[in-house]
Write a structure and sequence with these properties.
This protein is of the alpha+beta class. The chain contains 5 helices and 8 strands; from the N terminus they run H-H-H-H-E-E-E-E-H-E-E-E-E. The protein has one domain. Helices cover about 35% and strands about 25% of the residues. Keywords: Signal. It comes from Priestia endophytica DSM 13796.
Length: about 190
């Protein structure tokens, strides 16, 4: 019994540090199936991501680990570089910051004056179903209301679900599998 409690405590500590799914819930809830509980938790985490994206976007802030630091339409390239360094790569007008170990990936684009004008949030690659991969258009409509407009992106056949937020536009890009591939926050 002591060994089982130690294992459960170790799992709880590991989950706390990684922000993962509460493993001890499964050990203490024999009547719930592990798969059902995990799926429910993943859906809740995806919903939290959706609501966080929308909430931060209303302030022009980038969702994620540095959400309170960068504001679209205000933050300069120099401020971004001083805070998180230079990008991993540059493609066209976008500077890419690659995520790792559960951290999200981002693309930043700046205007001619070097002011942040658009951020693309790609979520994480690991356990993707707990963030963007778990967000569906039905979930967006249920929790955010119907988008202001949609647009089919030629060449990729993706659907862009656009919410106008005053000074900002929040765009959820839906891929062919009907999940969100990435989210754009753009200064109007």
């Amino acid at each position: 019994m002591k060994k089982a409690k130690m294992i459960a405590a170790t799992a709880l500590i590991g989950v706390s540090f990684t922000g993962g799914i509460g493993a001890t819930v499964h050990a203490e809830s024999p009547n719930m199936t592990k798969t059902t509980n995990i799926k429910d938790e993943q859906k809740q985490m995806a919903l939290n991501t959706l609501l966080g994206l929308y909430s931060k976007a209303q302030e022009g802030k980038v969702y994620g680990g540095f959400s309170d630091q960068f504001v679209v339409g205000e933050t300069t390239r120099t401020e971004v570089y001083n805070s998180i360094g230079k990008p991993y790569s540059v493609e066209g007008n976008f500077e890419h910051y690659s995520g790792s170990m559960g951290q999200a990936s981002y693309d930043f684009s700046y205007d001619k004056k070097g002011v942040l004008k658009e951020v693309r949030y790609f979520g994480t690659n690991v356990e993707r179903q707990t963030n963007l991969g778990g967000i569906t258009p039905d979930m967006m409509i249920k929790h955010l209301g119907k988008e202001d407009r949609t647009h089919i992106i030629t060449g990729t056949n993706e659907t862009n679900h656009i919410y106008d937020l005053g000074d900002y536009t929040l765009e959820f890009v839906e891929s062919a599998d009907h999940t969100i591939s990435h989210v754009n926050l753009v200064a109007q």
